[in-house]
Amino acid sequence: MKKLTVNQIKEGTGGRLLNGNAFDTAENICTDSRIAQAGDVFFALIGELHDAHQYLPQVLESGCRCVVISDENAWKQAAEQSGEAGNVSAILVEDTTRALQELAAFYLGLLNLKKIAVTGSTGKTSTRDLTAYVCREKYKTQKNTGNLNNHIGVPLTILSFEEDTQVGVLEMGMDKQGEIDLLARIVKPDIGIITNIGLAHIENLGSQEGIFQAKMELTGYFDETNVLIAARDEEFLNRERIQGPYRLVLAGTDGKSDFIISHIEDFGADGIQFCLEHLGEMHRFRLPIPGRHNAFNAALAVAAGLELGITMEEAARGLAKAQLTDKRLTVRGKNGIKIIDDTYNASPDSMRAAIDVLMKTRGIRNIAVLGDMFELGETSLTQHELIGRYAAQQGVQLLVAIGRDAEQIARGAEKEGLEKSFYFERKEEFLEHMDSIIERGDVILVKGSRGMEMEKIVKKIMEQQE
């Protein structure tokens, strides 16, 4: 982070300086009292379960000398308790979360960089990562780490950008209307990417049309200088549905797209190869990450790179180095068992894509361990059954379904004729029987929604192979 003076922080947050020196500086933003230290600005955020103002005494004891607070009494008590009032700058704001967001927007205005925002029902983290790999071939590029993609994570990511950052790639997550609009207002992206319109969060948004409208909030601050890049589909992401003053660039497998994807070769856990045609020129790309669907994510990344003056050759070099964020189709192996760890989250589209990767990965048996998919609303039981049917149709040899609605995955697989399937309401029940189900030589896909904590299954399998 570029050093900021207390006065700049006051200006950026719209706050009032209660105490301290306006010319002191800070070089890091912190929202976790346990790791606050000298040189940090501590934001006392108020969440559903915790009010960080109660930790101000510990923050001051840690050596932190600048705090942004909305509870003046809590500050006074902490300062009195620690005896550090004279050495600490305290900025009073109305809402500390909103102040963090406003400071992020202010900070972006101090930097000279291009901003790429990525959203979509599925694939946004992978596309974010691939876009960063492309851009790093020519520019100093930074991006969100982990899952810092919400109303707090995006501002924290922005405020971690170094002063000489040339490209910022920012994933934007949402589960309700208005959330992408908030992030777009903070970021004011130069380039927007929408990966797809699926069923994730349909419980909150009501329909795919609602999901589409929520994703399109990304363009709310676009004008004729902006570009929206999207994976073309017939219903939502096409020139008939998307209208605006900005330029639209589409990637897809037909002649209606600006970037035409073809000749996808799937090597299972070893990655994919595909061709991309643009302006009459054909280029071949190799990705060391699994999944046919990543050809579309990579095409979006290439399109974004070309908007910044990156050549196809440079983009290909960047993609060849790609590694995805952990728990997204990460292949692990030990003692003759191979695990495809895709436990970060799940939706119907990403479930199908992961099953495709499983079936392209060599092993004696292909096993799918699938957990509940959340936030599907009244479509949930149907969508779970369809996933079971899809697994059986693709040739999965053994299926394990875990969770409340996942019982429909097992039933769907059985309806399609799969003879070997197991259902467990809780993953602990599966873990008790796991040794009798898994064998040496198996390739095992483990996937489910975040709240299912399916990574615990991956961990247990790996531990038992030691």
From TrEMBL:
<dbReference type="GO" id="GO:0005737">
    <property type="term" value="C:cytoplasm"/>
</dbReference>
<comment type="similarity">
    <text>Belongs to the MurCDEF family. MurF subfamily.</text>
</comment>
<dbReference type="InterPro" id="IPR004101">
    <property type="entry name" value="Mur_ligase_C"/>
</dbReference>
<keyword id="KW-0963">Cytoplasm</keyword>
<dbReference type="InterPro" id="IPR013221">
    <property type="entry name" value="Mur_ligase_cen"/>
</dbReference>
<keyword id="KW-0547">Nucleotide-binding</keyword>
<dbReference type="InterPro" id="IPR005863">
    <property type="entry name" value="UDP-N-AcMur_synth"/>
</dbReference>
<feature type="binding site">
    <location>
        <begin position="120"/>
        <end position="126"/>
    </location>
    <ligand>
        <name>ATP</name>
    </ligand>
</feature>
<protein>
    <recommendedName>
        <fullName>UDP-N-acetylmuramoyl-tripeptide--D-alanyl-D-alanine ligase</fullName>
        <ecNumber>6.3.2.10</ecNumber>
    </recommendedName>
</protein>
<dbReference type="InterPro" id="IPR051046">
    <property type="entry name" value="MurCDEF_CellWall_CoF430Synth"/>
</dbReference>
<keyword id="KW-0133">Cell shape</keyword>
<keyword id="KW-0436">Ligase</keyword>
<comment type="pathway">
    <text>Cell wall biogenesis; peptidoglycan biosynthesis.</text>
</comment>
<feature type="domain" description="Mur ligase C-terminal">
    <location>
        <begin position="328"/>
        <end position="450"/>
    </location>
</feature>
<feature type="domain" description="Mur ligase central">
    <location>
        <begin position="118"/>
        <end position="304"/>
    </location>
</feature>
<keyword id="KW-0067">ATP-binding</keyword>
<dbReference type="GO" id="GO:0071555">
    <property type="term" value="P:cell wall organization"/>
</dbReference>
<dbReference type="Pfam" id="PF08245">
    <property type="entry name" value="Mur_ligase_M"/>
</dbReference>
<comment type="function">
    <text>Involved in cell wall formation. Catalyzes the final step in the synthesis of UDP-N-acetylmuramoyl-pentapeptide, the precursor of murein.</text>
</comment>
<dbReference type="GO" id="GO:0008360">
    <property type="term" value="P:regulation of cell shape"/>
</dbReference>
<dbReference type="GO" id="GO:0009252">
    <property type="term" value="P:peptidoglycan biosynthetic process"/>
</dbReference>
<dbReference type="InterPro" id="IPR036615">
    <property type="entry name" value="Mur_ligase_C_dom_sf"/>
</dbReference>
<keyword id="KW-0132">Cell division</keyword>
<dbReference type="InterPro" id="IPR036565">
    <property type="entry name" value="Mur-like_cat_sf"/>
</dbReference>
<keyword id="KW-0131">Cell cycle</keyword>
<dbReference type="GO" id="GO:0047480">
    <property type="term" value="F:UDP-N-acetylmuramoyl-tripeptide-D-alanyl-D-alanine ligase activity"/>
</dbReference>
<keyword id="KW-0961">Cell wall biogenesis/degradation</keyword>
<keyword id="KW-0573">Peptidoglycan synthesis</keyword>
<dbReference type="InterPro" id="IPR035911">
    <property type="entry name" value="MurE/MurF_N"/>
</dbReference>
<dbReference type="GO" id="GO:0005524">
    <property type="term" value="F:ATP binding"/>
</dbReference>
<dbReference type="GO" id="GO:0051301">
    <property type="term" value="P:cell division"/>
</dbReference>
<dbReference type="Pfam" id="PF02875">
    <property type="entry name" value="Mur_ligase_C"/>
</dbReference>
